[in-house]
Task: structure prediction
Amino acid sequence: MSARRVSFAALVCAALAAPAAAQSVVTVEASYLERIATPPGAVLVATLEDVSRADAPSVELGRATVEDAGNPPWRVAIHYVAGAIEPAGVYAVRATLRVDGQLWFTTADHHPVLTGGAGDAATVVMVRVLAPEASPPLKGTRWSLTALGASAATVAAPGHATFDAEGRVGGHGGCNTFGGAYLARPDGAFLAGPTFSTMMACEPARMEQERAVFGAFEAARFWRIDGAALTLSGADGAALATFSDAAQETPQ
Result:
């Protein structure tokens, strides 16, 4: 046997004998509050994600899937590579429940784990996502601003936004037209890039509200549609901006 063949065999043996990367586990208990039975064939998915960068989509580090999940609560273990966790990083778990591929429930709040004083277990309560036929689609709908945080929009022309299928959002902030890029995932995650706008000057109330609208887009990390209302929420789950389907508004 040649020296080259012996060396190759030694490398193969060494590779087979090398220990796998150390694995750790995050435990997630997921449920929902609605008193409805989970349909047969429902699929629960829980993920561990690196959400350290506010200016970029999260990175999935581990996933657990429960086929034909049955009724809540569910307790699942997400395995991940321990070496992927940085002490200064920010990590969170999410959960979704789908029936026939359609999203029924998802987490809307931020559930930290592993760093910053958080442990290796989390309890999440998912919120209901209405069926598509009961709600207008995110893309292509003209969304009129109705509230910023817990306060109703107050100016005469509060603004509106439209999301297209190519990842662009545009509209009117109340004084200026604006545009930008966005990412809205089916599981409720949301990310928008910096907005650009025209530079008209308006009365102070409009300008103040417009700055808040642009800030809400850039700070939003989650989206959801309830009936005819679109809500953009921050990383902590608090509502930043609420919009309504302009086509369903009742003229005053």
